[in-house]
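Notes to self after the Tuesday call (sharing in case useful).
The group wants a holo model before anyone commits to mutagenesis around the pocket. I volunteered. Ligand is xanthosine-5'-monophosphate. Logging inputs and output together so the record is complete.
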Amino acid sequence: MPQTIAVLDFGSQLTQVIARRIRECQVYSKIYHYATPASKLREEGVIGIILSGGPQSVYSKKAPHPDPAIFKLGMPILGICYGVQLMGHFLGGKVAHSQAREYGHGHLTIKRPGKLFARLPRKLLIWNSHGDKLTRLPPGFVATAVSENSPYSGIEDPKRGFYGIQFHPEVFHTERGVDMIRNFLLGVCRAKQDWTTRDFIAHTVNEIRAKVGKSRVLLGLSGGVDSSVAAALLHKAIGRQLTCVFVDNGLLRKGERAYVESLYKRNFHIDLRVVDASTLFLRRLKGITEPEQKRKIIGRTFVEVFEKSLKSIGHADFLGQGTLYPDVIESISIGNNPASLIKTHHNVGGLPERMKLKLIEPLRELFKDEVRSVGAALGLPKEVVWRQPFPGPGLGVRVMGDITAANLEILRNADAVLQDEMMKSGYYYKVWQSFCVFLPIKTVGVFGDERTYDYVIAIRAVESTDAMTADWAKLPHDLLQRISSRITNEVRGVSRVVLDISSKPPATIEWE
Ligand code: XMP
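Result:
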C-alpha cells in the first residue's frame, strides 16, 4: 500500500489540479469523496489530508462537511480556500458569510514562514477565489500570512500539523504555489517522493487487470495522442484481450492508415481491426458544401460504422477511451460524485449505453503533458507522443466546397509536402498545428512553357497553448519558400500557394 495523500473533494473545479501538483512533487495522492470516514482514510495508508476548495458556504444547508473525526486522526491537514473555512468552522474559529466573491490576484505577505512557507520570498502574488472568509482563528492557531483582504490568508497550528491558506496554491497564477504544496507534503507529512510515471503505469496496469478480469475491451483508435496512449496502456495490462478499431473514413492524411497499422499491429502486436468505410463516407458527403452539414454527416456515419464494427467483433464488456481530465466536466452539484459526469465523447456519443458497454478510461485523471510522459514511457515514438491535434472530421473540414476523391488527393499530397518540411526543419514540434487547406478556386499559372489553370492550396500554421486562441505562426521565409515551391512542383493540380495570416479570434484554426 503506497503512502497516500488524500485530497478530499468539496466540489472545486481545481481538485484535479491539486492532485496534479502532488504528482509533480512525485508523491502519490488519491481524490476522495468529501465525507469519506476517517477510519477508511487511515486503513488506506493515508499520511496527510488536503481539504479542497469548493463553491459552497460552510453555513449553507447543502454545505459538504467532512467526517469531523479527520481532525482527530493525528494526521497533518492542509485546508485550501473552502478547506480553511472548514477548519475554522470545525475547530472553533469563526467564518463570515459574504455575498460577493473575492476573485483574482492578491498580494501575500508572509509573517511567519513556518514549515508551509519555508524558503519562500516574504512577498508573493497569489490567486483568490472565495466568498466567505475566516474572521476569528480557531484556538491553537496563529496567522502566518496576510493579504490586502484578509489578516488570515495563511494560518497554522504546527503542533497538530494543521495548515490553512485562503488562496489557491495549485493554480499557475499563485507564485511559488507548488513549493507551498511541496513543503506540506515533504516538510509536514514527510511523504516519500516515490511516485513517477513508471509507478503510475504499474499502478494503472494493476487497476485495469483487476477491473477487466478475463473480459474483453474494445477501443476506437484514432491515431491521436490520447487514444494511442490509452491503447498502449491497456495493451500492456491485458494484451490480446484488447481489440482496437481504426476507421478509415477516407478523410485521413497521406499514409496515415498504413502508419497506424504498422505501428500498432506489427510493432506493438495489438489486435487491430481496420475498417475501410471510405466509400460510404465519400458517398454521403457527395455534393455537401456546408461546413456544419459536413461535420454532422461525418460524425453520424462514424458512430454508425464504429457501432457496426464493434458488433461484428463479438462480445465485449468494456469500451476503452482516451478521455483526459480536461475532457471531464465536473458536476458543480455537491453530493454527486463530482467525477461521475463526463462529456459525451464527440465521436462515440451514446454508444456505450446503447451497447451496454462499461467505460474504462485509464487516463481520465491526467493532463495532456502527463499523458505524453506516459506514452513515451510505454515506448510510443516521438511522432505519436508529440503529434499535433487533428480534427475528428479530418480532411473533410480542410477541403473547402465539395469533397471529392480528386480534391482530397491534391490536399493529401500538398499536406504531405508541408509535414515533411515541417518535420525536417523541426518546426513541426514548435507550432501548435500546421496543415494545408484545399481551395476550390482555379487560378492561372505557368509551368515550363505551358499555361496552367489549377487550384490553390493555403498554408495554415498556428501557435497556441489551448486552441481557444491562436496566433498565426511566423515561419521562416526560407521554409515557406521550400514548402511553396515543392507543392507547386510536386503536386499536380496546384498552381498557387497562399499563407493564412489570420489569428483566432476572429478566425478559427480550421477553415470549416
Ligand atoms: P477551431 O477550428 O475551432 O479548432 O479553432 C480548435 C481546435 O480543435 C480542433 N478541432 C477538432 N477536433 N473534432 C476534434 O476532435 C472536431 O470536430 C474538431 N474541429 C476542430 C482543431 O484542429 C483545433 O486544434
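Two things stood out.
The longest strand covers residues 433-447.
The chain is about 30% helix and 25% strand.
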